[in-house]
Amino acid sequence: MKTRSKTSYSTLYQAFLEIDEGDHREKIRFVEKNASSIANLEVIEYFEIMYIYHNALFEIGKHDTQLEIGDRILVMCIMHLITKCLGEDPYLETIFKKAAALYNVGEYPEAQHVIQELLKLHPDHEPSKVFLINCLVKERKQEVIPFRSVSIVAILSSAVVIAIELLFIRPHAPAYTEYVEILRNALFVIGVLSLISGEVWIRYKAVNQAMDQVKEYRNKREEKAG
User: Which of 18, 103, 177, 217 sits at a 20 to 30 Å CA gap from 26?
Assistant: First the structure.
């Protein structure tokens, strides 16, 4: 895509760039108010405005519109061979945000599929690796249920032991207080450790699975390049 000097940019484009960088809502309002005029801009201006608009939509959580605009951006990247915008790779960043948006609206399998396709193209993209791990953790959520069940039973049992201790042991059998305290503390610790170990276990498995997938994607790219 060809570039031009800043002096040749349109008034509308310059007005858009004057909006404060962090004012995402004003950027969205500007684009939606001037949609017809923006559509008539030259490709270089139109694309940059829509790319910034897309990112603003993502930042405030308007994911339905963001996903729609994101698909347009991806098509334009391909049609016009756009590889850089605002110092970023717009194709890569738009796909990444598409996966994140799908995840945020609860479309976990779709989000995982998109991020896997991205990693096939860019296996060294670190944010995508982290995101894939999160998707795999979500996919394995059923595996943590037994750990949580043990945790709930242990902590509730600890609460029951505390009640027994206060109502019966301390008033009527104080000699056994120390043993009861050890029992209820042990039950509580077991409950907490079970909960923590379940989360650690599924994340450990997710990390290993993600790294294996990334390694596979990287090897395939190297084979094609070779």
Answer: 103
